[in-house]
Structures are given as C-alpha cells and as structure tokens.
Write a structure and sequence with these properties.
Length: 346
Amino acid sequence: MKKLTLILLFTILFLSTCVEKVKLDLRSGTQRLVVEGTFTNQAKPCIIKLSYSQDIDALRNTPYISGAKVKISDDKGNFTDFAELPNLKGNYQSTNLQFVGITGRAYTLNIELPNGKKFVSQPQTMQAAPPIENTYVEYDGTTKSFNGSKLFGYKIYIDTKDPVETTNYYRWASFTYAFKQTQLYSCSPFSPPTCRDLYWCQEIEKDILISSDAGINGNAIRRQFVHFSPVYLLGTNYVEIQQQAISREIYQYWKNYTDQTLRTGSIFDPIPSTIVGNVYDANSPTEVALGYFAVAAVSTKRISIDTREMPNGRNLMVGYGDKFDSHPCEPNTVVYVNRFPVEDWK
C-alpha cells in the first residue's frame, strides 16, 4: 500500500512539472468598416462616424478612420460633401448646411476609404415625424447604472400622436449635457486653491429605444420613456429629446440588435441571426459594413433641468463622494467649458 502511494505521489509530481501553458494560434477577425450616422431634416450639420471593427480585448482603443471621402446625395442629384473634424478623429461633418432632408426624398451615402476602397449605402427614403406633444420629467431617487457609474437622475417621458394614414416606426435618440466641475485649483501661482472649471459633458442615451405603431395605429402614444438624465453634481442639465421617424428596415435592424444583446441563454431567447447593415462595398456587394446609415425626419424638444431642485438634493450629493466632482468627459463627445450657450437652447 505504501509502495502504491509513493508511486502515485511521484507520478503526480512528475506530471505537475511537465505542465506548460499552451499557446493557441488565435486569429483576429478581419477588420470591417463600421459606419454610424443619421441624416435628418434638421438645419444643422450631419455627422458620420467611421471606424474599423476590432478584437474584443481592444475595445478601449477604437480605430477611427481619418482621411476618408464622404458624400450624401439625393434622388434629384443634390449632395453635400463632408469634412473631417480636426479635433474628433473619424468624425465627418457635412459642409453644405443648405442640404437637409426632405420627406419623401431618397438619400444615399458614399464613402471612399484612404486605401481607395469605395462603399455605398442602399437608398433610404425619409419618413415624416409627428411632433412631440408633452414632456414629463420625474426624479429617480434610486441609482441607475449609467456609463459605468451608479447615479441619481431624472427619467424623461413624452406624449405623441401616431398618424393614422401610414405604418410608422420610431426611434428615440436623446442626450444630456450633464453638469460637472473640476477640483479646486490655484487661480494664480502661489495663491490658495479658490478656482475651478465648470463642464457640461454630452451624455448620450445608450439604450436602443424603438417602437412601431402595430396595434396602436392612429392613436396617442402616452408616457413613452425616452431618456435618463444623470446627475453628477448640483447644477443645470440640458436635455435634447429626438423623436425619429425611421424606415421599416432600420427598425428591424435595431430590433435584431436589441434581441441578440438581451439574450439570456434561455430556450425562449430569439434564434440568433446575422445583423446586416445597409452599407456595402461598391465593387463587391457581398462585403457589408457593420452599422447602419439611417435617414430620419426628427421632432425635437429641448428642456433644462435644475438639479438643485432634487428632493433632499444636497444630502444626496454627499453620498456620491469626491470621485464625481471631477472631469473628464467621455472622449469624442461635445464638451462645453465654463459657459453653456443657454441662448441657443430653445
């Protein structure tokens, strides 16, 4: 018995000294073009974002694409070129501010990458968007996970009226300019720390909020949730609510996306399917880019929220701790420093 025990012990020791890490030859996926952008009927520049897909372990460093040529044209031969924003790599802004979307007109996106490769979108027809009738702002005293932080804030709801004549599809894409500030610092050399900078950081609603008028055609849509406005510090948040009238194809794209990202491993989960975008290689149509070029008429509401009016607000802020009393804002977003253009917020 002792002999058997010794044999087993030596065998285990031998095997343990022979174990080494196996280096697997893991191949990275082929980089694919990623397109983000929505062309609207709003009289302001359109932004198209271009990047390459990447490995999961490199998500923190998005490979944005510089030096591309971007153009949007309509079915009447009108168009606008785009210029890359100098401080936002991979973000291209329309140069013809007179070129805005018109209901019933079809629009096409054209992209030429720095390597000469050309991509084109399927034509997208702009649908009409009903107006936002009412907005409701409700304080949320529970914390919500927002961009990696647990925050208090405000839930925002709207009322709208669905048109009876057509089948309609909606997406709500809203954002907040959230108030933040830096820690105190010296106003001048050798002075005590009495100065600080104020920031309004753009916080985009990351939840995909979509709906169709199936079952409610022609009726009112009441208390539709559209946005969570986070509170970092007591001050004023500025919120823009966008109600987009999207096509059936875009609605189905986002529905497939949300269905698959919400899978829980249950047998009741939707069957996985390929999420196909609408931008493809002009010379090889089977090569499809990731993302989607959307065309949508937009109804907009802008509101401001004085977060100092939160119930028991100052006591709540104590629980946040110093880590929220600081910058930075998220990269590649719009930031206002020390002055928010209130006169334009109408």
